[in-house]
Design a protein that fits this description.
single chain, alpha/beta, 7-stranded mixed beta sheet
């Protein structure tokens, strides 16, 4: 929201005041950003899954260790709560901090109402064959066989006998959208092994008929990502090469390649960050609705009462 290259966290109050004086359009842009934030927030609060086929949409986050999956969950929860929160465990170890499969509900900060979408956190991907999230676990997660707080074991893939639930859980228990989470600074340097794992997961997701998007995190120039109307990606965005690379790697349409800057060490919320977070979440829900609309009749009929 500040002039290019200048962000809230990096300047003093005096420098911020000088920015305002030198940039007459700043106040107008800030007011417009806050208004657009509220518009996006209202739309998300009013969201209901396609044709009420399910009561809640499940969004699975997958990606390399340290890509920002858990941080995105905290950022979403913070934006809805109206204050910073750190419910999902985050860290910077070379191995995954997340060891369990976690399902997080999202609540409206004002009413306390639980909203009809949930974010599912998974163990991070690692290059080793017996490290990080096991590739054989993915189909079980997508099909809704894995319960909240399941402890992952990279050396022991999930077996149907691990759970007492049905082999083919109802539609409401399945994953309805997958977000491939990638740190934008490492997109162009992913190893062949990591790329191979991402493509394998992408194939499983497509085979299961699940909606999917890519989420690029750690975007430094987040105030430049959207155009002045906060609707479309700016044509001059400096991260365009990474976006195009992801499109080529995973065959995901550019409209479904999203960019955010997660909350990390900030002490307060920022309207521009919230806009990107809400816009990304909204696109994930649209991808889920598209997949629900495209369900075969036999799957659409596999419903449980809410």
């Amino acid at each position: 929201m500040f002039p290019s290259g200048v962000h809230n966290d990096s300047i003093s109050p005096e420098a911020r005041y000088n920015c305002i004086k030198k940039n007459p359009g700043f106040i107008k842009k800030m007011v417009t950003a806050k208004q657009h934030r509220e518009k996006l927030l209202s739309a998300l609060k009013a969201y209901r899954p396609y044709e009420h086929l399910v009561s809640e949409v499940h969004i699975l986050l997958v990606g390399p260790v340290g890509s920002g999956k858990s941080s995105f969950i905290n950022s979403v929860k913070s934006a809805f709560q109206g204050h910073l929160t750190r419910q999902a465990i985050v860290g910077s170890d070379e191995s995954s901090i997340t060891k369990q499969y976690r399902v997080y509900s999202i609540k409206d900060g004002k009413s306390g109402e639980t909203l009809p979408f949930m974010l599912c956190d998974s163990m991070g991907l690692e290059e080793g064959e017996e490290a990080g999230l096991c590739m054989d676990d993915i189909p079980h997660i997508l099909k809704g066989c894995v319960p909240d707080r399941y402890q992952f074991n990279p050396c022991k893939p999930i077996k149907p006998k691990h759970f007492t639930s049905a082999v083919s859980p109802p539609l409401k228990d399945r994953i309805h959208c997958v977000a491939f989470v990638l740190d934008i600074s490492s997109v162009n340097t992913l190893s062949d092994k990591m790329l191979g794992k991402l493509k394998k997961i992408h194939k499983d997701v497509v085979d299961c008929g699940v909606g999917h998007v890519a989420l690029l995190t750690n975007v430094k120039n987040y105030d430049e990502v959207l155009d002045d109307n906060f609707v479309n990606m700016a044509e001059s965005v400096t991260s365009l090469s990474q976006v195009q690379n992801v499109q080529k790697m995973l065959n995901i349409p550019i409209a479904n390649i999203l960019m955010v800057s997660n909350y990390a060490s900030e002490r307060r919320l920022e309207p521009m960050k919230d806009i990107l977070i809400f816009a990304a979440l909204g696109q994930m829900l649209r991808a889920a609705d598209d997949a629900l609309e495209d369900l075969p009749l036999e799957d659409a009929g596999n419903l449980d009462p809410f």
